[in-house]
Specification:
Shape of chain A: globular
Oligomer: homodimer
Strand order of the largest sheet of chain A: 1-5-6-11-10-9-7-8
Structural class of chain A: alpha+beta
Number of domains of chain A: 2
Radius of gyration of chain A: 29 Å
CATH topology of the largest domain in chain A: BirA Bifunctional Protein, domain 2
Largest interface: A-B, 109 and 110 residues
CATH class of the largest domain in chain A: Alpha Beta
Distance between the termini of chain A: 48 Å
CATH architecture of the largest domain in chain A: 2-Layer Sandwich
CATH superfamily of the largest domain in chain A: Bira Bifunctional Protein, Domain 2
Number of strands of chain A: 16
Number of helices of chain A: 18
Helix content of chain A: 40-55%
Chain lengths: 455, 455
Amino acid sequence: MADKPSIPKGTRDFSPLEMARRTYIFDSIRRIFKVHGYLPIETPAMENLSSLMGKYGDEGDKLLFKILNSGDFKAKIRPDELAELPAGRLGTMISEKGLRYDLTVPFARFVVQHRNEITFPFKRYQIQPVWRADRPQRGRYREFYQCDVDVIGSDALLNEFELIQIIDEVFEALGLQVVIQLNNRKVLAGIAEAIGAPERMSDITVAMDKLEKIGLEGVLAELEQRGLGLAAREQLNPLLKMEGSTTEKFAFLEEYLAGSETGLEGLDEVRSLFDYTESDPLGALMEFDLTLARGLSYYTGSIIEVKSAEMSMGSICGGGRYDDLTGIFGMVGVSGVGVSFGADRIYDVLLQLERFPERGALDTRLLFVNFGEREVRHILPILGRLRKNNIASELYPDQAKMKKQLNYADKRNIPFVALVGEQEIADGVVTLKEMETGKQERLAPEELIERLSSA
Amino acid sequence: MADKPSIPKGTRDFSPLEMARRTYIFDSIRRIFKVHGYLPIETPAMENLSSLMGKYGDEGDKLLFKILNSGDFKAKIRPDELAELPAGRLGTMISEKGLRYDLTVPFARFVVQHRNEITFPFKRYQIQPVWRADRPQRGRYREFYQCDVDVIGSDALLNEFELIQIIDEVFEALGLQVVIQLNNRKVLAGIAEAIGAPERMSDITVAMDKLEKIGLEGVLAELEQRGLGLAAREQLNPLLKMEGSTTEKFAFLEEYLAGSETGLEGLDEVRSLFDYTESDPLGALMEFDLTLARGLSYYTGSIIEVKSAEMSMGSICGGGRYDDLTGIFGMVGVSGVGVSFGADRIYDVLLQLERFPERGALDTRLLFVNFGEREVRHILPILGRLRKNNIASELYPDQAKMKKQLNYADKRNIPFVALVGEQEIADGVVTLKEMETGKQERLAPEELIERLSSA
């Protein structure tokens, strides 16, 4: 007797109900992407390991799933190498492929590889799973879908604005209220310049990120610990105290960043995005948030993050501009901007707020009870007509006990059952029973179609 | 300078055009599955290697992609083992996971693992990629999608008939004419019994499969070579000569198989399926084909195969009944039947016969030319209205030369461009230009929406 089967830790099976909900999310997102003219691509699950290694830092390299070479993977490796090389080194000698870790690096690879077939600016979306050998924990999986939308080959801020519109429209379609937080790496660099510590941008941002949690004094203490001089800390003080409306913040920063060309450029970018929303207002709230420091190691301009306005759940979507994505594959100077929707967290928000639609349009509406071969032959053409009218219908395949068949309808949440016995055949009708009320009607096939099309 | 990036051999990138075509296929198939009440599931790309090994024969084991264990995969293996064990053995010691090889074994694993949550009969479909370390060649890939539909937990022939209806409706939806070929393993076993060589079924089928290619004499010669006695060969002779309509074939076999209970049972099953088509006729041609011997090692009853009636392309869909699928995971006596659609071959057929629809409903319909910031601000709210009306529209993000912007529209096959300059802003209109004809119209925003909704 075999053991009860299982799946690798950190991976998941998706049941029909989970699939219906996930499909609802992906379809909503995809529809908005498409109406904005974004085009789908897919890339293979496996990339050459050389395309992946070194792209996500040392930590990332360790989290790559490597595919063992097929056939005699040890053939070209000396016994002493097998015995003595550390696992990391040996791993790359016996594996030349790895599972994709995100959709960004494969996208960059795709763009460079197909540069001559692509029309730029290239607006693409991609919805596929990625794999990370992370320690599994609540809400963190080793296989999960990413849902990325990027435009590459244009540095216009209109692209950022379009992505913000897409975010706004996606969450409106899903019935979720969100806050879109905006920052700009150039503003952060400008702050570091303004206080005379241009090389300390990342220390400053890491500390500022904790402002809400540890307060002004806490941030300043941390910066002291990180070795930021007194003068710099004092110059930072008024910034940390900055309050007021977005317009007031802009006015303050205009002055604060006066000495930093980069900073003013970043400020101008943020302001332009707010200006665009005046031409075509968003449904969601957009906030300028200086403490937002997502992806500072790769974003070069705008930084975008989205949170639920209705519950606490961390980031459910985010992204930014990267000025040299394809540089890693030798194609330099191509600017891009993109955001990624966190399907798993959006799923959790919809579930907790009970915002999933009750049922899909094509859930089975009707089950014909199976009374035997003669009845089946009478039912088959009616069933065909129902399906042609897009009414998802089933015939119980076995001539089982009535109770068992009704139990199936009940468990599957099928709202109607149809009974066709000798009398119904003689009269050319179907007895339709509504499961919830028990109410029965005798209907001709065309009436049945009409009844179920509108029900 | 990095090398030009590439992807592992046998894998593919899918461009937006290919994606549109593949999505068309999958959506058509999915719609038919759903209207028949089948439910979607997804399983992880990685399964425990123990779930996969031994399920596909020795050859199959070699074609599994193994995932190298994370971290120090060598830690528990002695140096002499590393040096001396053959790659196959060592591979299973340093890999505990593998990529799924098909959707059938993961489905069996899913059913057993979730047996208490599932309502039987369980009608499921699954559309996901699978991976095989096969030698890549034309039309054979190392990563490809399977598109499976199965019902498990019912041995009624109505399930087979429903799958045949699904096949018929899918190919009708795709605009392809097909032949559905039907056979039954029990009939093949009955033939072997009838000629007094019950243990030689597989030899007989392998030879009969070549009937069209090598002719009657060829088949008999091959059977002699395989050691089938003269008496048995002589008894087979009339069967190989069998001709006539399906009804005539049934009559012939009724007599031929008279001594074999199994054979008659199989014949009865085939006949019942043809009988069902009299209650609800198929669009496609269905043929009873004794030489069809697909998947004899696992199918136990009906065998189904589908070919294009318009071009030569091998099987584009196939399947059958398996009486003990979940037995491999310790849950015995559960009968199932299923078919799998070959998306890649269907793609090739549609492409060669030029049956793909010209364009998707949401391809970009309109590009606004970007003349500058002032015009952009005027355009943004119009763009928003178009998109709300599901008219996929874009605004060129950069204020580039007119020629470049029109070139983008041309390359992207966008049929209309909109020009909004000072005069248009003053008059509250948009100049719409049809790319193909060059024809221009001046339209108010609401007229623009109407024009593009119907165009």
